[in-house]
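Hey all, quick one. A colleague (J.T.) asked me to put the heme C job into the tracker so the inputs and the structure tokens live in one place instead of scattered across chat threads. No bug as far as I know, just bookkeeping. Sequence used:
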Amino acid sequence: MSSTDASGGETMGASTSSGSSTTGDTNDPTTGAPLECWEQPGPWHLGWAIPEPAPIDGDPVEGEWALLHEDYVSCGVPLSIFNLGKAFLGTYADGESLPWRDGENANLPYNWTAVTSEGGTELAAMNCLTCHAGKFNGELIIGLGRHDADYTESFTSLLSLFPELPEFTDAGKEINKFISRYDALGPYIQTETIGTNPADNVAVILASHRDPQTLAWSDEQLIPVDPPVVPVDTPPWWRVKKKGGHFYNGMSRGDHRGTMMFASSLCVDTTEKAEEMLGYFNHIRAFLESIEAPAYPWAINEELAAEGEEIFECACAGCHGTYDDDPELETFPNLLIPLEVIGTDSLLGDAAADDLGTLVEWFNSSWYGDVTQLTVDEPFIGYTAPPLDGVWATAPYLHNASVPTLELVLDSTKRPDFWRRVDYDSTNYDRDALGWPWEATGGQDTVPPSERRHIYDTTNLGYDNGGHTFGDHLTASEREALLEYLKTI
Ligand code: HEC
Ligand code: HEC
């Protein structure tokens, strides 16, 4: 086979391929030296290398503090009633507190931050960890995507369970403001299954309500949009140090602070507020880039893992990079892979480039666009092949959380059409298949309404579990070795 598009692999030194060569597929066409397995022709040559952004100065320690204390989300629930009513908020407020946080924060669930409104009311506001902290083996890990959050219910109906506050007080105004923001988000952020996240829709709807230059909020949409709910899996933050393009479709390129800030723009209604945030988001970015993947906590069969490494280098490394105990020796090609090559659910990639194109224009022409530009179809629509550090901890898999275990990622023929997690207990982990124990079910239509949200129904729009067939050709014993290797990286 000859490589079609040789632009991939630019960051991999000698691997720039140049069409079919006279020295054969396994030698470097210029030097004649043997190519590493992952440099030989493969589907990775259909990918495009996303350029790395310039590094920026930031202090990870200050960044972690800012993430857990600053008021980048400045609206929320008055503290007085939050503490009484947080049980109504389900998985939004069921987290443990982090006693090392300063002041009032030490008593709040880890994903809420105490902030003060302009009128002086103490509020509890949700921070990034609402989605970006999750449990593995019973332990909360900051940076792991939360895999058991429930976005199947309307958040405003949960908020309506709080006691009413007199409207003329500042506290009353604040809770009404918070409720009105969630009213605007409404049904656009309700997913079908526990463990899928509507963050992309949150961003799109917030944009549709704001003036791009002044960031002023309007209760009515300024750009009328009616997007489908795109379900996504929250990716782990320890990947971002290697990623040139953030998000599954690699759309955030360059300085990523613009998109990171936009992720928490619920109540950022002025450019002054955004400018103030930009001043500490370089530290937040530095913190995110300092996070390391956890180490596999149980025994590893090193001999089997070494066999798996060879398989990985020939079948996977061309897209996912190479791994080493010494990070300096690792390589990562940062490839965007065309949708038709990866073959996973296309809703996310297509919607960003198509129906939601006007909101991409909104972003790029907005205050945020001066910091980061979104690029959704250059040079084509695709998904990025992510770094696989600590991937055993990040079930469920694929961008839409459609596959419960790594074993099934590596064999598309065995993936169930309908499945549910046996429970949401993070200590109940399948160490053979590497992922969450699951059982096959009927479709969502076959169960009572109260059961629907537990079922992952791949016939729903955006929930397809096909594609990524790159492990299908492996024998059962090769797959077992490969899984063993994935525990080591
Ligand atoms: C409502 C849940 C939610 C909140 C809150 C949230 N995120 Fe995210 N975040 C996500 C999801 C889901 C994605 C993946 C979206 C995609 O790629 O399409 C994501 C993606 C990212 C990425 C890109 C990761 C990658 O691998 O490409 C970064 C960086 C990030 N978020 C940072 C933040 C920061 C910083 C905050 C707080 C200021 C934040 N997020 C708040 C859910 C959330
Ligand atoms: C042609 C490039 C390519 C090859 C070859 C490839 N992958 Fe991938 N891989 C991707 C892309 C792109 C994604 C993201 C797909 C998505 O989320 O829809 C992905 C996703 C994954 C994920 C899911 C990550 C997560 O957290 O959801 C795993 C695990 C994975 N690949 C492992 C492998 C292994 C192991 C191999 C070798 C058998 C392999 N891949 C071969 C491109 C590739």
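Adding what we noticed when we looked at it: Confidence is low (pLDDT under 50) at residues 1-24. Residues 323 and 329 are 7 Å apart (CA to CA).
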